[in-house]
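Journal club prep — side note

Before the paper discussion, L.F. wants everyone to see what a predicted structure for a comparable chain looks like in token form. Sequence:
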Amino acid sequence: MNALKGKVAVVTGGSRDIGRAISMKLAAEGAKVCINYCHNEAKAQETLEAVRSIGGEAILVKADVSRAEDVKRMFEEAAKAFGGQIDILVNNAGGIVGRKGIEEQDEEWFQKLMDLNFKSCWLCTRDVLSYMKNGGSIVNISSQAARDGGGPGSSIYACGKAAMLCHTRAMAKELGPRSIRVNAVCPGMINTYFHDTFTAPEGREALHRSAPLRREGEAAEVANLVSFLASDASAYITGNGVDINGGCLFS
């Protein structure tokens, strides 16, 4: 424990599910955590209380991380609260929003999905660098969809997550000389609100029958992997997209 003692982390989209689990895990390992949220303040407060209940130190910052001015303010508030240096960035904000086949998609839909799932990662990575003066670790939450194109009606979501995966590799090359590591995590089906809302029960049941481990993953399992990639235990790992899908996809 305390693998992240003295570190400062920013977790985007931290109000629930995987973002909440990541915030709690990083705090449990000793990091001070800036928990970002955009819409659901009540859920964000629950995350903050959960972190504090385990003795963690955290703040909440409301920001739309697809907007440059909000991203700038988020990092300013995190730095002000925790002493200037930011050591860990987890680009977790994203979502499928809904399912639309290509003939239903318009430019507004395309832009919304790309802003949420890739522009946010690009903006946050760009702006955190001035706070990573002593190196750091960036962990991007991509998706199995980036590998296989996603399920029906999720093509733009999958493309945004694939762009994030490519950006991970590009930034690992560019930022490595500054002692900043960049990795991605690619979850498969995880037991979250995401799948409760957008995946049909029969689809989840089919996975339970076919997956080598015969189950969905849990948010805490994703958080464990993120914590490892954020810590010095993974000091020679960068530029990777690490799959966590119970064996449903091998890359």
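L.F.'s comment for the group: The radius of gyration is 17 Å. Keep this in mind when we get to the figures.
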